[in-house]
């Protein structure tokens, strides 16, 4: 499974986004399942509604409803880990959605991600030491 960040979903839906072509090509050519988190879904809905309107938001939620990607739920035992990560990267700062993706990488045992956020996912480390491998924007 490949981790999908907010920027990837926004780029995929918005033909005017500078990363749209890469996002679209990835989806066309990859057979690997995508996975994200509920904080990312919330962020995507908010941004797509602002930028493209209700139709874009509904289209994304339809993808969710149809099972186009899996969703990782943060286990209750990891609430402290999320807080720790946000405090650790407070200088960036790290938001809740990004912290959830770092935690997801730790559960998956890899940091293969689709993200338009080069700076943050170049800086973040899963399991405090392992770098992410951004497949969308290397």
Description:
This protein is of the alpha/beta class. The protein has one domain: 5'-nuclease (Rossmann fold), CATH 3.40.50. It contains 7 helices and 7 strands, in the order βααβααβααβαβββ. The mean pLDDT is 97.
Mean pLDDT rating: 97
Q: Estimate the strand proportion.
A: 5-15%
Q: Would you count the extended β strands for me?
A: 7
Provide the structure class: alpha/beta
In percent, how helical is the residue content? 40-55%
The strands making up the biggest β-sheet line up spatially as: 3-2-1-4-7
Shape: globular
Protein topology:
Elements: E1 2-4, H1 6-13, H2 20-29, E2 34-37, H3 38-52, H4 54-65, E3 70-72, H5 79-88, H6 96-108, E4 112-114, H7 118-123, E5 125-126, E6 130-131, E7 133-134
Parallel strand pairs: 1-2, 1-4, 2-3, 4-7
Antiparallel strand pairs: 5-6
Helix pairs in contact: 1-2, 1-3, 3-4, 3-6, 5-6
Brief overview, please?
Helices cover 54% and strands 14% of the residues. The protein is an alpha/beta fold and 138 residues long.
Features:
138 residues, Rossmann fold, five-stranded parallel β-sheet, two-stranded antiparallel sheet, 7 helices
């Amino acid at each position: 499974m490949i981790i999908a960040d907010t920027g990837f979903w926004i780029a995929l839906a918005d033909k005017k986004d500078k990363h749209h072509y890469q996002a679209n090509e990835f989806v066309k050519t990859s057979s690997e399942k995508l996975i994200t988190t509920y904080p990312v879904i919330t962020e995507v809905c908010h941004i797509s509604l602002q930028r493209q309107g209700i139709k874009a938001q509904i289209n994304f939620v339809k993808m969710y409803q149809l099972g186009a990607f899996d969703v990782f739920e943060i286990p209750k035992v990891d609430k402290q880990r999320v807080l720790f990560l946000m405090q650790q990267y407070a200088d960036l700062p790290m938001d809740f959605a990004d912290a959830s993706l770092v935690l997801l990488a730790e559960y998956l045992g890899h940091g293969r991600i689709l993200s338009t956020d080069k700076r943050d996912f170049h800086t973040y480390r899963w399991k405090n030491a392992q770098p992410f491998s951004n497949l969308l924007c290397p």
